[in-house]
Amino acid sequence: MAIDAIMLNPADNVATAVQVLKAGQKADVRLGHDIKQVLIGEDIPYGHKIAVYSIRKGQDIIKYGEVIGRATQDILAGHHAHVQNIESLRGRGDLQKEA
């Protein structure tokens, strides 16, 4: 079975496309030995992130079990999660670390 995208941690809410994904396609997303099917809502380039679950505006984007950013708008499951709808939280001087 060909894998279309991969997640590395059960806490992740995005997966990485390991091939070009087309709108309307049912993509097989692998997490360990488990496979989850996600209906792709828009074309996703190779190597880019897709939302595996719907993500609300302001919600953390989690990849590799780590927060890598925050959604700047709602991202529907199966849609592209990238710079157009994610803001980075790393390296920003305006955010204070919580004590």
UniProtKB/TrEMBL annotation:
Keywords per UniProt: Lyase
EC class, as a word, reads lyase
Q: Which GO terms describe its molecular function?
A: altronate dehydratase activity
What EC number(s) does this enzyme carry? Answer: 4.2.1.7
The answer to whether the entry has keyword Lyase is yes
SMART domains linked: SAF
- Specify the SAF domain's residue ranges: 12-87
Task: Report what the protein is called.
Answer: Altronate dehydratase
